[in-house]
Structure formats: C-alpha cells, structure tokens
Amino acid sequence: MRPVLVVNPRSDESFARLAETLVANGAETPADLEARLVAHYPMARVRARSLSNEPTVIWYVYREGSWTPSTTS
What total number of domains does the chain contain? Predict the structure, then answer.
C-alpha cells in the first residue's frame, strides 16, 4: 500500500514533490525514503505513524529533521 505523506514544511512544494516522486519510484520504507531524501536535504527524516487498526499507511516527512512552521510568503 502506497503511504500518504504528511510533509513538513507544507510550504516547500519542491520538497513535497521530491518525496512523492521518490515513493512513486520505489522508496518502500520510511528508512528508504529518508536515505534518498538525505542526498538532497541532509537533515531530512521520515517517520511512520503507528496507530493500531489504522487502515491507511501514513509517513511524516520532515525536511529539517523535526516539525517546523510553514512560511506563508
């Protein structure tokens, strides 16, 4: 099942697009996606959300290694 990516910061469209492209091109685990992202964004981290009985696979994708506020400009 392809994961839903929750990308942070949401305002960085190029980062979100890269993450989606990497998943579409074969990144099958959070660790795999993280390894591919780090080539472009050295602080990137990917964490799987693990809630019991959740039907959707969700990965949190952080450009700066943890949550950062999105810019509006």
Answer: 1
The overall longest dimension of the chain from CA atoms, in Å, is 38
Strands 58-62 and 4-8: parallel
Beta bridge partners of 4: 58
Q: What is the pLDDT confidence band of residue 26, given thresholds at 50, 70 and 90?
A: very high
The answer to whether position 37 is within a domain reads yes
How many CB atoms are located within 10 Å of the residue 63 CB? 21
**Residue 23 resides in a domain:** yes
pTM for the whole structure: 0.89
- Domain assignment of residue 15, given as a range: 4-62
